Amino acid sequence: MAFGGIPQDDEGGWVKFIVFEDEAKNLDKFLSSHNPSDPSWNKKNAPWVTVSNPYAKTRGESDLFRAFQLWEDLKRSTLNVTAERVKEIAKETNLTVGKWMIFRRRSMIDETWKTIAEATVAGKLGCSSKVATAYQSDTGSKNKKADMHLICVYTDDYSDKEEVMRVERELRSLGVADVLNYKPDIYTHFDIYAKNPYKIKVSLYTTKSVGSMAS
Question: I need a surface site. Which of 145, 165, 175, 213 has the fewest CB within 10 A?
Answer without folding.
Answer: 145
